[in-house]
Amino acid sequence: MKKNNKIWQGDRSKYPAFDEYGNPIIDLKSHKFTKLWHGPNHPGVTGNMSLELTLSGDEVVEAKTHVGYLHRGFEKLMERRLYIQCFPTCIRMCVPEADSNEYVLAASIEELGGIEIPEAASWLRTLVLEMARLQILLRTVPGQAATLSLGMGAQWGMYLRDLILDRFEELTGGRIYHMFIIPGGVRGLLPAGFKKRMEENLVEIEEFIDKIEDLIFTNAIFKKRTIGIGYIDPSWVDKYGIVGPNARAAGYNRDVRKDYPYLKYNELDFEPYVGKDSDVFTRSQVRKHELIQTVDLIRQILAQVPEKGDIRAKTPNVLHWELPKGETYQRSESSRGEYGLYVVSDGSKYPRRVNLRGPSYTHAVALLEKLLINANIADVHSIMVSLQTCPPEIER
Amino acid sequence: MKEIIQDIKKRFNCTDEIEQSKTQTYITVKKELAIALITHLRDIEGFTHLVLLTAVDWIENNQFQLTYMLNNPTKKIDIGVRVFINRETATMDSAHHLWEQMATYQRELKEMFGIDFPGSPRLNEPFILEGWDNIPPYRRDFDTLKYAQETFFPREGRETNDPAEFMKKKMYPDEEK
Amino acid sequence: MSDNTKNIEEKKDKFLAEENKKRIVTGPDGVQFEVDPLQDYFCDKRPVAKDPKNKVIENFLNWARAESLWVLGFGTGCGNIEIPPLLTPRFDAFRYGIQMRPTPRQSSVLIISGYLAVKTLKRAIRSYEQMQNPKYVLALGSCTINGGMYYDSYNTINRLDYYLPVDVYVAGCMPRPEALLSGFNKLKERIKAGRAEGANDYANKFDWYKANQKKIIKDWNMPDYNW
Fold first, then answer.
1. Residue A307 belongs to what domain range?
2. Nearest CA to A225 among A146, A141, A298, A121?
3. Helices A280-304 and A119-146 sit at what angle, rounded to 10 degrees?
4. For position C13, what pLDDT does the model report?
5. What is the ipTM of this complex?
6. Which residues of chain B are modeled with pLDDT < 70?
7. Cβ(C172)–Cβ(C183) below 8 Å
8. Closest Cα of chain C to B6: distance in Å?
9. Cβ distance A363 to A46 under 8 Å?
10. Which end of chain C is more exposed for a tag (fewer CB within 10 A), N or C?
11. Do A76 and B144 touch (CB under 8 A)?
């Protein structure tokens, strides 16, 4: 048999032409394209959302994000709840990292009500926020490798995450939803022996970080399948509203903790890691460095957090608390980027309007639709996880 | 911050300036000049990051308030541009050409508040809701409790208490006499 | 045709997706024919309740079913965040024969993890109907029981047992992995005792379930029963 040694030259005639606005002209009746629904019932989507992909061969020519599968109408529900009743509702807006929600709501209420929180409460809040970041990063850093079927790191990371959840349980009483931060302060002080147990966990996590360097970041398959994939052009950062680790991977040194220091972050010593290449590998690297940094930050916080002291400022009776008229926007740095809450008060007991600005709102809709064009179908999951999309904060 | 506010107040007839904090200011601008002001802020004053766009329903004044929250990443300041539009007509100029994610915000506002942004891409595609045939849910005159009770077969035996009354009864039962 | 049915027809047409509408298709041999996807692509046969004939064999099968619960990996709500810890070393659900499957065709348990938005309910119903008998539903969280904290939300259902037959409810917001494991054990007990008859119940009360589902899913653009 004669061997055909000719290398396959890409036949672009199967790919769609573009119209004047740069959108592909897709004629589904031409049988050149396949429509594929990626989700909501699909193991390769983050959470409950869906991607409508139009494929030519195994290449994506058009992607549309469909959200709304987790819509609970929080912003409407909060309009008919007292400010203190808003807390259980608000923390469910983004499930994996619930503490950022608590903090932004508490900060907005304190800003509008003109309340200063005590020193110890401020430290404890910083500690809780960093612990939340640590547990989510233990999930997402090895989770990036799990998208390429390197599942071992993910199993390992999930075990370590459980240790941090144990510390959360000790401190706050809850595993996922803590409701530790309340307007005016926090709910409790550190339990006895907490620092020692936390330190033991941190040592274990540091060992793990050394090992994932070998397991994931020097792995040939991981490198081959992530370097150069999912490239975000640095000029898109402002155009698409990219924040957090995704912006830092594109070379922008933007971190709310540094730029708009809140709580005790200006007393802590840290420098955000800024990447250069802006692909999936770099974003993964940024998150790994953040993991190292968070372990260091928790050590710094534990060294300075007061063992006792006032943890709650005096507030009016929360059941009759009427905030003065006004509006404010408070932001914090979640593991996904700038996470903020816009609260409008009309002088009554109930908020007039609460609006959440989640980083996934831009990352998972406008940016993801753009990034997936010309991506291979096998890389869709990896690109999506590298943006760390979180559907509940898109539709709330 | 002060100079920028003084400057745009002169140029764009802005009113109702409220300085919420050192880095955050809110101003009101007329509907016709809003997009021009936002473009000016983005291109000249360096407010390149769109934080959010949202609406507030002031049903008693028959108005919708649109808030464009802009952020200057180099000077690290925020400016909230408020635009009041009529609640009946509920139309606003589209700004989808300024930021790519603006179209998503406008799609959401169209669905949840019924505010129209003519010319915005994919505006009429459903975003969050599916098969919704009532008034837009984020409007103040939409009663979510009534709708839920009529639609979703509530389970019996659930009671709802006013928190203030309930706590009073529970903690100070003697005071009621 | 009365006005009412005409209205329903029109409404149905309005919501029908483009690919589900009737259309004329030209075949490879040049012959044109009409395709009605709702009729031709889906089997619209009603589900039938199955009566076990031999008690001894049924008991044996139930034991086998209870020991290999294959769960559909469909995270419908926020309770889904406790599923990964359940499958990782500390709680290790694999030792109970529980594992996740990617497609409804292979799975026997549907976990409704928390509140269900109306849009997700539609997908959950389709996933449930695509699963093969015997099939079980495990509902997590207070919000599937009576709405929980979303009792007044316009977009989440209040009680799940009006739309899908539920075998075990796990209360809590959100249920811990231990509670989930205990829920699975309860489900096993039920299956072994022959009381987990959700699929038969669904077939017997099919019209009632469909009426409830259609009441809240306004854009019903799919066949009534899809295998």
1. 74-358
2. A146
3. 150
4. 59
5. 0.88
6. 175-177
7. no
8. 44
9. no
10. N
11. yes
Residue type at A325?
K
CA–CA separation, B107 and B110 (whole Å): 5
The amino acid present at B8, given as its one-letter code, is I
DSSP state of C100: E
Closest alpha carbon within chain C to A75: C153
Distance CA A273, CA A252 (A): 10
Query: Residue B157: is it exposed, middle or buried by C-beta count within 10 angstroms (0-12/13-18/19+)?
Result: exposed
CA A27 to the chain's CA centroid: 36
* Alpha helices by DSSP H, chain B: 2-12, 31-43, 102-112, 144-151, 163-171
Interface of A with C in 93-152 (CB under 8 A): 95-96, 139
Residue A92 resides in a domain = yes
Work out the pLDDT band at A13, boundaries 50, 70, 90: low
User: Does residue A27 sit within a domain?
Assistant: no
Sign of CA dihedral A73, A79, A82, A87: positive
pLDDT of residue A7: 47
Say how many C-beta atoms besides its own lie within 10 A of residue A260's C-beta.
20
Supply the Cα-derived Rg of chain B in whole angstroms.
21
**How far is A311 from A117, CA to CA, in rounded Å?**
8
DSSP state of C104: G
Q: Which two tokens stand for residue A347?
A: 């002088």
Residue A373 domain flag: no
CA-closest candidate to residue B20, choices A332, A70, A331, A287: A331
Which candidate in A21, A77, A353 is best for mutational testing of the B interface (most B CBs within 10 A)? A353
Question: How far away is chain B from the Cα of A186, in angstroms, using its nearest Cα?
Answer: 21
A66-101 pLDDT per residue, tens: 888 888 888 888 888 888 888 888 888 888 888 888
Residues with Cβ within 8 Å of C192's Cβ and at least 6 positions away in sequence, in order, are: C59, C62, C63, C66
Q: Is C149 on the interface with A (CB under 8 A)?
A: yes
| Neighbour count for residue A25 (Cβ, 10 Å) | 9
| Domain ranges for chain C | 60-216
- Give the CATH number of the domain where residue B71 resides: 3.30.460.80
pTM of the model: 0.86
pLDDT tens digits along A3-12: 444 544 556 6
Which position has the token pair 């809003």?
Answer: B34
Q: Do B21 and A111 touch (CB under 8 A)?
A: yes
Q: How many domains does one find in chain A?
A: 1
What tokens does A350 get?
A: 């109930």
Asked if A24 and A61 count as a contact pair (C-beta separation under 8 A), the reply is yes
Residue with tokens 């977009």: C155
C43 membership: H or E segment, kind and range: none
- Chains with 3+ CB–CB pairs under 8 A to A are B, C
Q: What CA–CA distance (Å, rounded) separates C213 from C208?
A: 9
Instruction: Mark out chain A residues that contact chain B at CB-CB < 8 A.
Output: 67-68, 71, 73, 75-77, 79-80, 82, 84-85, 111, 236, 238-241, 243, 252, 254, 259-260, 319-320, 326-329, 331, 338, 340, 342, 344, 352-353, 355, 357, 361-362, 365-367, 370, 395
Assess if residue A317 is contained within a domain.
yes
Alpha-carbon distance of A133 to A127, in angstroms, equals 10
Instruction: Report how many domains make up chain B.
Output: 1
- Bridge partners of A339, per DSSP, are A332
Q: CATH fold of C60-216, please?
A: Rossmann fold (3.40.50)
Residues of chain A contacting B148 with CB distance shorter than 8 Å: none
Quick one: closest CA in B to A360, which residue?
A: B101
Q: What is the CATH number for A233?
A: 1.10.645.10
Q: Is the pLDDT of residue A123 over 50?
A: yes
Distance between CA atoms of C69 and A176, rounded to whole angstroms? 26
